[in-house]
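Usage

Read records sequentially. Each one opens with the input sequence:
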Amino acid sequence: MVFALMGALAVPGLAEDSYDDPQSAIAMQLLNAKPCSARMQVAQADQGTTPSPSPSPSFSPVPVSPGAPYSTPFPRGTPAVTPYPIPTPTVAPSVSPGPVFLTRPSASPSIVPAGQATPAPSPTPVGVPTLQPGYVAVMADKVTGSTKPGVPGDAIGNVHIYYQDEVLVGDRAHYDGIRTITVTGNPYIVNNTKDSVLYADKITFDTVAEKANLYNGRGESSQGVERGLVYFSAQDLHADQHGVSHGNFASVTTCERPRAGYHITGKTIDVYPGDKIVISKAILWLGAAAVFWLPRVVIPLRTVTDERRKPQFFPEVGYNQYQGFYVKARLSFGKDEHYFGYYTIEFYTKQGTTLGYNGTISPRSGKRTTNVDFMRIQNKLQKTTQYNIAAQDQENFSRTLRGQFSYNYQGNYGPLSNLAPTTGANATVTHSTGLETQSYTYHRTSTSGQSSSDGFGFSDTRSLGTTLQNSFNASLTRSESSVQGFFSQNSTGSVNDQLHWTSRAADYMLTFDKTYAKQPYGINKEPELQITPHLFMPHFVFPLSPTLTIGQYNEPQTPETTARADLGLSMGPLLYNSFLGAFSATANVHQFAYATGDMKASISQQLTLNTPIGS
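and closes with the structure output:
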């Protein structure tokens, strides 16, 4: 069995220099290693690589409270739909403009400032209004008191306070008429992306500085978290208009119950949404037992999309009948996007040891990206040592010229497979401008002592105008194989050219396709013209789509060469509804005429009756 922590944190040591602190890395390993008793996930171990983590959860429009007694339930009056957009306030700006009070309409699709009559509907569409920078809007079910700037007022029922990047929500809000709004009744603050929430028993909001003071504040975030959430709390927590929070006497954990499993407490906490959580004078706890003290811990909140940059801090332990007991770990390295990767270590009691390296190098110029993947597999059961190697390189020579190169060698296909090693190499150089693209390719594949294949290719695609395009492809392939004393060899060359012209009346496609082979096969087109009208008898009872194809064809293995014309007509579908159900009919007719004087035809029909039987 494999036990995975639901609240696994993002990768430390990839973005900031402070993430490289080894003590912080140890703390992250322990946080990621201990499963929460309430959120443990059990997965079946496999014989291959470590299964990829499940997608990161996202907040619903109305977040879910983490539960008592450490958090306050959300306001019961919170609507299940997204609030209406905030209109531009009509209050004249001053040195310290007060908040704009708005009442939530019951039927009107617009938001009306409190104390004003509902305006008549506009005969023409009106653009979506926005909240001006520096303004604060308060929306509620009911507004009492004065709505004039500088005069105290109260908002009651499903209160939403909009400002900058955050929304403050509660059951009741009191404005002192100067600059402070006090929100009570299960208040919380949620950011615009709805992936971070701050809770408190009471929140006071400064409308001028746009800063919130949370009493007994606590929060949760899914930013940079692979599974579950990261929870944090502080006795005195402050948050600015961008969601950056600072608090004293902090606590951070990945468990719903703050005292369950590993958790960190500290003197201060700084939360930078989408970036990191910084805790000073931190203590790592296992339940009620203190493990060790750290001067500073940095927890990244950045989501790493590249799976190669996600380490597996806690080893995976399991058992299977063939390989025995095993321990698998993946150790990450690298500080930035220019050089990163991981080491793979796998130990099996029956099979042996596997060591691997995966590294990506990208210079700061951005012209090249190289990835090398190496793995050494020592198999005690088969008394062999096998290797898997893969290398890829992408090169930008100029704005219009780029190349892609790859090499791979696979000697191990799995614990229960014993196949010959294979080698593959590919190279592609592409020149592309706005109107034309040329590509040169080479590929080689070989299976040790059994077969090999080499191929060269060239393609040219260009636009000769808005209605005329041409595509040319040529390839040359040579292959040979030797199996149980039988040897075969073949060489193949092909040329394909397509000229496409479109007009108002029809589409025209001229195709030349010819294959040269030591062992001939297929049918050559020398050439073929296909004409498809855009519109044909549009007012007929059912749709009609004709296609005319004329060409010179060659069958090299016969050999035989002749001309042929094909008039195809697609009819339908014909639809008819009755008490028996929905009836549909289609038909396709082809009439062939050969230069030899032969005539052939083909007709295909399809009739369908769909009859509902019950719900």
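Summary fields computed downstream for this record:
- Residues 115 and 507 are 65 Å apart (CA to CA).
- The longest strand covers residues 560-578.
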